[in-house]
């Protein structure tokens, strides 16, 4: 049987990355057919990206059949892997998620706080529809979800769709492992980090190089200013006391929770100078697509790395390769907790090291959370579950509760105004919410 | 055997309340002997309060022997009940707990945030010493702890002393029940409220009047502006959306967590106008003691109610009465979780409805926390446990962690400066901390 | 509104007990109307019992309207309390439950082992139907379930019917408390026993008399041969080592689990001498009904106490009284675990001390089971849940699993023959099971 | 640094197996030094086995230095791995463990029931002493424990010694995997079985061959009489209903729990015909040592396989190899539960699939036990923990409780006599028990 991969949101500027990944790994993960799928609004971009991808494949001499289409159902039939990299509402919606909270005095970020909550509200119904189609058309295919907020979206899929072959992936752990390898001058394949927590809220509890504990060395490097923030986050560094107390590796997104005031100030200033990150990215995208249209381009252009998604393609391809080949290596994925973290519900999704087998990821047991992380991780998970509840119920009250229990919002008196503006801005993508009263 | 009660911090301005309580309940709780205990610094106040208490007893005609002393050990011998109402460092220390955080941009409050944390640091060692003395001198006596932060202090005692007959009491649930009775025009003894949570972080999940659910009526009254804040907290009201979503009765202290920005602004303004709450209270105290000195005064003066501790005496006396008489009624106390709330550790202290028997409180089972409270309550409990850990270990790192995990602080970059100033201010009362490096 | 009680299985020989209870408690629990309901097969008994009950009421001078009917739906309309004391298949079915297991080398008992399992299979569908009718016809009525196995049946109702106002009652804890009061020469109302466990598998962890621990005294009495077995169980006494080790009060049904070999021998001998307990009871019943028919009888006859259900009526009437009057006293009932026992699922039914309010029972928190009980209680609960699963699914495999996990059966090679004979014997009452293959 | 392995109980007849293992794996696990240790009583056997091992090494041409000694402390210094294969009291003690219970009507087996309990009582103090010596003399060495009951002993070590580098190993999962590979005609390295449970009480929940689920095929083979019992257990086969219901692979030791009556009959008959298994093994041993003494023997003799410990050496060597090389493969070991199985305590030892790294085993998360296993596994674990408690406390009451809660004993009236005889028989090896009263 031919090995078929379908990429939902195939017109994304990231697509050349994953195409490159398929080409480089063709010896071990021999993709026969790739189908890029997008929606009517993305038709023109899909065409541009599709033609670039075809030129890349042609140049490479590997045998991959490529197609692009707007007919998702047709594309899904018989797929082995379906990868999602969609953005419901596009970068325009992201700009609103970033700008509106700032205006109300809250951090505006596309995966945390109010912005992440509304991205989840827009995304969950679309991906549930996709999952239903997969149950019908390719029931044995793995859905590899990259769409943010990846942890929340993956949990929503596992809770509310019949399709249970779903894994969420994020490049942050991948990125941290690579950065730590650089810091320690060790080959990345010798480095393992025990991650505990949730997507965008993981800590690295222990760094092992060939089984030897090097955590203290990495913390020492961080104390001296080493950093591993991706392109889309400007790190503010961590104080000595913070690192001495927490004794684990923070991830770049922790700045939103532990440096809230400074990040808000920084973001407001950046916004005044350059607009939102979405607007910066729109300009990057414009330039990327200019290059993509150049018919002499037949490789992934360097500039793509500025996009913030470095290693996304590696993360995706490694995962598909291990699933396909029953490889049994350890990767960091978003999957069901079961009992891995004792403090969280069994049906919660966590970001965790797991052995990747053909039958799916098998998480490594963690046990009880260390006391000093228990509160915040439980708190974040509560927010995530309230967000899913609201995304499904479409009730204003549920959205209010999710906002109230998000540590970046939590301001009883300002939530109504914040939500009202966000619901108004995004209402076209939120048909599940019945907001007549609230917005009238 | 004579029934003996010892009041630690007997020179407090609150003492006339509890003396009044003993007088009024003498038919069912026939106290034979009351000993007021205080420290050298409180000698003069103890004398004033002791003489007023004696005049009150004389007037009442009940047979209670009263003494006051600075010799705690002598006083404890043979006690049946020991009640604590101490304030380590006095109102001066409280003023620092309120003022210093404000200066750093944080809420300054004596039971929450950085102020509550330092109050716990100062209080825990003193009460552990008391508990050890009780184990030796009156092993069967109940320690009724009123000293704030009452939940944290009670948990520290149950975890780190041999004396296990300890119950923490707060007037907030007592107060809420009375206010709700007023709102519903029902006799308070017909009203029961199911409380869930932690001291100063409880919610009223269900209001029953003679077993009939009246929660919605109370919420409706709150929506219309009804309030039940004690004298020391200025309520800001609750939005309709908040009450519609949470569907439970908040307690007055919730404003610190859900209205943080507004409370901070309000407190800053109040501070500029009147100084800290401690300073306001110092003035109230000054006037109270002026009255207490008046040898013609032989009842509890009205002005005492402005002090914020309304119902404290009722709460204390009712509890002692039920313990003494094996009454089996339901009261709200701070006691071991055991399995009452499934999401919290068994050895955590919670504030909970319990059947009060001679053998101690028997909490009514709660089960899992409702999803929307799970995160915050777990978070607060984590903070509490980190605070206890720091109070015992005396390590700066542990204090930093507690601050980091407190939702009112959590600001990685500003904690060092905040802690440094607080440690400097309170160092005389914190011998367990070895802070040379930090404060040098 | 008149207070109406409906008794399902009203033609039972026990009915005079509960009628006596209503008469004696009429001042505090003023029943206006009692309806006895039975099925066509029980028509004649219903008539006899109804007339005796009428004579008892007439004699008492209390104002209770009594009716008896075969029309259950008509009877239920407007009920406040519905009490069940049915026996699906009658004493004939019980005799089979007792005889068939014995034949296969297993204990035959109507609430434990294979007998109890089949009693549950027969009873659960009938009571689920009743609960559905109640949801429609008297949604606010409490269902007080006495039908054995009371714990299993109550859990099945709470899990599989919409009607959630269900409480299971057993006379064993009532009985134990009375016996302990006698042993200690204390008024029963001063005695409280902390019960932990499951119906027919509870232990008394602590005996308090007016709040003073008297557990050791009761254990000493048991060591000297004191016993508190009901009429239907012949106690074999407990060894000193057993009582010294377990340090709690066993209940009479523990003999099945801890004295299995001796009980089996005893039961086999008794069976050879007198037939099954069901057959003994049939004879008692025959004599009772002879008396009931005597139109000069207008009180509960003494002989009824030989039936084994002593205190059933007290247990039932006390419970209804407290629910009706929001009394807030503590009774031992079968109700949802929620979090009361940490080791058991939240939706399991346990037998537990609870505060009885108009809004239902509020269990007293227990926490983790003592280590030495954890295994057996979890094991029994597993059996109970597998039994419910089988009673609902009607699958042979599920029934096999339940038998396999019952400590009194567990014999992989003999279960098929045992089940086959039981299914054959009871098939008329087990329409939910599709057993063609098994029984062909 | 030279790689040093110490074998405690080096005079065992199994030693040639592990020596062969070291020889065959020398390319990847390059042992430099092996020290065989035994006690005075085993001096002569140690000499015989040592000389055979030396001849095997000489023949193989690998560079391993071999020594044998009675001085355990001297041997331990600088060790990297310490493997235990001791039998406190020798086969004579085993014979008593097997014979005495049979006499009282209980199964006599060296790892289950009363026999296993007393083996634990004898073994735990000896291995705790070893662990203490290791903490002093080779703190970084792994203790690989083969001594049965392996799960109980490993848990006792992890709970009561400072030395935390302890892993328990059993050949049963190894054996099952090999047998399943044969049944499926698949190379064993392509087969993985998800094991859940406890040592000698594991089930195989899922069989994967290259990631494809083949569980049903293995169950079908078992239904047709395929078996995978080791030499020391005579399998009785499993009924179709059992396999259809349980839907998992039983292990050979399950016969003791699910076929108790038949196994007891079988064992009684075997005992009458051939004496206990210990006596059979004594004869095998005698013949083995006759061969070992033959100076022309320089390989492991075939007959060793009749001993019942097939694959023990493979299990041991594979584990040491993976620990040494940080291999990251999955092996089935006895290690701390942490949160792997949600229903069991975090500090319990379970038998579980784990990724083997230089930093130790990392168990794969399991979550909640399937309902139908929950009861029995919790029950067994309770017994195990009570056994450890008794082995440490030395209290008769604790031993009684452990026996009472063992599903193979549980007979309140017969435990005293059973224990008395076992304590009398083994008292020389049970100095921790103070049994004057019991045995007088």
Report a brief summary of the structure:
The first copy, chain A, is an alpha/beta fold.
Provide an overview of this structure:
- Four copies of one chain form a homotetramer.
- The first copy, chain A, is an alpha/beta fold and 440 residues long.
- The first copy, chain A, has a domain at 374-439.
- Helices cover 48% and strands 15% of the residues of chain A.
- Chain A is built from 17 helices and twelve strands.
- The first copy, chain A, has helices at 15-24, 43-60, 72-76, 90-103, 113-137, 150-160, 171-183, 215-223, 240-246, 255-258, 260-274, 277-292, 312-325, 371-393, 396-404, 415-426, 436-439; strands at residues 4-8, 33-37, 65-69, 81-84, 142-145, 166-168, 191-198, 201-209, 212-213, 330-336, 349-357, 360-363.
- Chain A has a six-stranded parallel beta sheet, sandwiched between helices. A three-stranded antiparallel beta sheet of chain A has the order 7-8-9. A three-stranded antiparallel beta sheet of chain A has the order 10-11-12.
- In chain A, strand 7 and strand 8 form a beta hairpin.
- In chain A, helix 4 runs antiparallel to helix 5 (113-137) and helix 4 (90-103) packs antiparallel against helix 16 (415-426).
- The radius of gyration of chain A is 21 Å and the shape is globular.
- Chain A starts with a strand and ends with a helix.
- Chains in contact: A-B, A-D, B-C, C-D.
- The interface between A and B is large, with 45 and 45 residues.
